Amino acid sequence: MPSYTAPTQDMQFVLHEVLKVSHDDTPGYADLDRDFTGAILEEAGKIASGVLAPLNASGDAEGCRLENGMVVTPSGFKEAFAELKAGGWTAIDGDPAYGGQGLPYLMSCATGEIFVSANMAFNMYQGLTHGAYSAIQAHGTEAQKAAYLAKLVGCDWTGTMNLTEPHCGTDLGLMRTKAEPQEDGSYRITGQKIFISAGDHDLAENVIHLVLAKAPGGGEGTKGISLFIVPKVLVNADGSLGARNAVSVGKIEEKMGIHGNATCVMNYDGATGWLLGDLHKGMRAMFTMMNEARLSVGLQGYAVAEAAYQHARAYARERLQGRAVTGPENPADPADPLIVHPDIRRNLMAQKAFVEGARMLTYWGAALVDRAQRGGDAASEGLISLLTPVIKGFLTDKGFESTVNAQQVFGGHGYIEEQGMSQFVRDARITMIYEGANGVQALDLVARKLAADGGKPIMGFFDMVKGFIKENEGHGELKAGFLDPLKAASKDLQAAGMFFMAEGMKNPNAALAGSYDFMSLFGHVCMGLMWSRAALAAHNALERGDGDADFYRAKLATGRYYMARELPATALRLARIQSGADPVMALSAEAF
Amino acid sequence: MPSYTAPTQDMQFVLHEVLKVSHDDTPGYADLDRDFTGAILEEAGKIASGVLAPLNASGDAEGCRLENGMVVTPSGFKEAFAELKAGGWTAIDGDPAYGGQGLPYLMSCATGEIFVSANMAFNMYQGLTHGAYSAIQAHGTEAQKAAYLAKLVGCDWTGTMNLTEPHCGTDLGLMRTKAEPQEDGSYRITGQKIFISAGDHDLAENVIHLVLAKAPGGGEGTKGISLFIVPKVLVNADGSLGARNAVSVGKIEEKMGIHGNATCVMNYDGATGWLLGDLHKGMRAMFTMMNEARLSVGLQGYAVAEAAYQHARAYARERLQGRAVTGPENPADPADPLIVHPDIRRNLMAQKAFVEGARMLTYWGAALVDRAQRGGDAASEGLISLLTPVIKGFLTDKGFESTVNAQQVFGGHGYIEEQGMSQFVRDARITMIYEGANGVQALDLVARKLAADGGKPIMGFFDMVKGFIKENEGHGELKAGFLDPLKAASKDLQAAGMFFMAEGMKNPNAALAGSYDFMSLFGHVCMGLMWSRAALAAHNALERGDGDADFYRAKLATGRYYMARELPATALRLARIQSGADPVMALSAEAF
């Protein structure tokens, strides 16, 4: 059965040598010195390895069940959740005014990675609460903040997002759930919502549902949608819990994975709700949750891949099978370990280069969020808005692929549930789908984010890449292995952008037929930039001669792998994009 | 719940317009006229849609169970198996001397595709029997043939392959199962075998296990391995069933998918077995089964993808979500069907182009088998030996990817087991692993098959591609869309081969680090050749003006998609190969 160890050395490398967080002027970052973040990550690692990881496989096998209309989570989840709360882990970046620890969002992501790697399904209960907390903090009235934030900040109550209905997923304009205004200022919410993660459970005494619904007078489509706070148990004026609200669990879905998290059909039968934010502006308020959720899903993509990689690596070192083609490396035993075989290396290098690159990209994204929200920096706001669909789409596509690679290392044993590798694949699969399927991320990227703010964010990104290359061209060692491939990849991305500008005006299908490839191309360039920054940091550390030289040399070698073997994918993506709409759109719907 | 319709029009196109089977001088092919094959495929389609497909999801949900040491298959499997046998489907290419239908292997593949698409797990019971039949036919004594073939030919008894042991998968030299010679000429077989598909069940009264074991005097490693026939129930001299043999099911594995097929731990406790083929030459005899099995697994890869594609296509036509970017196409309803969206098209085109191309490649491979075995053609024997790892590895990698694409079309609904899309993904996943994990296929291709027979087969392949291009360069319409990209892709493949020749001599790791990419590159070139041949056939039919013009036009458009959007992957594969061993082999085992 898989175990997990938090990769704290690599996390510290990203925080302190790539991002140099304690030298960043974002409010709160000065406190993030190496000892402080190290202590946090080590402690998070302990609870992850000791408490959460042991419940991962059992949670998958046992799943959630509905008893008397209430969801019962798998054995041990309740106790583990209590322990997480007691340690303050569920409130790490919450506002101290409501009892949070007040740390930057970045630290919530770093610890979140650890918890997700150990047990993704379990961690979703607090992940969704984080989103609900943020939405109420951003859009709630003072009374709403007072009523909910202190409870949500540390998961005394948990939160959910209610968007999807049976006939409407991406296209929320088709929504049927209704909100009827009442005389006391509340609304009666009626309708059915599906795919509600953490929709109910036994980990907290209340669940605060944030529900999109149509209130009268808002017009057609998404314009008529508002966001409502609908508690499972009504809250009295004094903050105590009152009567049960008219919201119930219709059923728990049978899913491919994340069995430890209850995905519920929620029925609202005239439930009492309160408007959150402005009437008919619910989409905007919901996007506060969605953008954060999308970053977290990108994180899930590589965090599960990290866990899968750890097990594949251990198996490749232990399992004796065949001999190295260059002669026995383990002559005392009847066979060499799998890791001597070049194709196993290829597989492991792909996993390692992906998870380490993805970690840098995600932490960088989280730092941009902090810079935007804590530092009020508009350029960072624009950049993270641009990068969010890339982080969500690319890291989950590649994260899933990486878990499949990890499973493959086990051969037939990987297909047996007992080994735990199947679970990583099944769990990772949802990350490509929820919070906007990856095709929708690609659409968001190409149709909205590229042209946003007159193209400033994308231009800023290109300038940043160019600037980095120029600044470091003097490093002979970096040039051929890192900077030259990064330059070529960035050129491919620019060429794709130019193609969209030239062709998209005439035929929007030409841009949209290439949107998925563009997302992937962009993801590769981001990874190439991250690996180049990592190489610079490792190179500098080796020049200084301090620290763990083996670690830095491995970092450089892993980066070289990415630049030589993965980054050339940008040319393929560009070729696909430049083939335009015709190959994709030629058939009539009937001809499929 | 998914339904399935056999794509008989496309199958007929491949048989009669691409392969032109009835004009082929392979023995038995002259009988394969259009009406005859059409009738067979239609009938197979009926039983697939009416009997097998309805048991696919229920078989997955119910799985197999062990009762009093015997495997019980899911409800309905027994009756369906009886129906399949009664229709003669299980004996389609068996020798008429033993009661088979005597049709070419090609027709067994074509009907096999239909049955696998409808219910992969179910079809494995007869698939493995086919392998056991072939091994006994090729290597058995006359007495063994008389005793077993008439029973195996139509699945009155079924067969298994027993290779893997807990500590030995790919590396069969580590095998521990022992065979001790007895005075009566039989052997006592003792050991444990794992991952035995169809290891036991209630569909037939006997199971004939073909078991690899070490008999005394054979020496170390794979040299000491022999193959044995070990029936579940011993067979008396008169052919009647005797006592139970000392072989039992240890347990049924809990797997990611193919739940309808019992994957068993088999315990041999001094079981009685008989040598099949020569002593200590068991690997050779087993490879008779393995090569056939590998082709069948490649077939499974795309056959499951075909079924998944059919459902994704139907969902994309029905599900209303969003509006076409070029203006509403379904103004009467509140939204357009998914299929109007370019990124959904990209996804569906990728699936369609893959399954149709894979079908051509597999049928071509089957025709090569017939030409080699029925026609005694050595060149075909060499070519199919070269192509087998490509067909197995490439079609299962892409087949799995294709089922993931199909699942993605469903958004969140794809993740719910009820929709059936998860099952396709979970079932398809095993095809990349069993009968030699795909990394082992790549190794086989690069380390053995490329240099086999002085490189004659691969040179023959290149000549064939070149000849085809030269012969058809006059077709202006084919040149830019098909022949030019095929030429470029074929050049990439040749360049990769040259790189291996130049570098592999100095450093075998340089070739092996690129083996997986080479397999993929080769697969793409094969698909490019197939699509070019299909384009020629469709072009000719349109020129003649007979037949279903819409079908031919769709065929050309689908081919153009493949050539423009998928085939350029060869350049990426070549770049990865040419980066050599360093990026892959740089780290020490400890540095991962």
TrEMBL record, chains A, B:
This is Acyl-CoA dehydrogenase C-terminal domain-containing protein. It comes from the Bacteria. It comes from Albidovulum sediminicola. Residues 161-269 form the Acyl-CoA oxidase/dehydrogenase middle domain. Residues 461-587 form the Acetyl-CoA dehydrogenase-like C-terminal domain. It holds the Pfam family Acyl-CoA_dh_C. The keyword Protein biosynthesis does not apply. Belongs to the acyl-CoA dehydrogenase family. InterPro entries: Acyl-CoA_dh-like_C_dom, Acyl-CoA_Oxase/DH_mid-dom, Acyl-CoA_Oxase/DH_mid-dom_sf, AcylCo_DH-like_C, AcylCo_DH/oxidase_C, AcylCoA_DH/ox_N, AcylCoA_DH/ox_N_sf, AcylCoA_DH/oxidase_NM_dom_sf. Gene3D superfamilies: Acyl-CoA dehydrogenase/oxidase, N-terminal domain, Butyryl-CoA Dehydrogenase, subunit A, domain 2, Butyryl-CoA Dehydrogenase, subunit A, domain 3. Coiled coil: none annotated. Residues 281-448 form the Acyl-CoA dehydrogenase/oxidase C-terminal domain. Residues 78-153 form the Acyl-CoA dehydrogenase/oxidase N-terminal domain. SUPFAM superfamilies: Acyl-CoA dehydrogenase C-terminal domain-like, Acyl-CoA dehydrogenase NM domain-like. Keywords: FAD, Flavoprotein, Oxidoreductase.
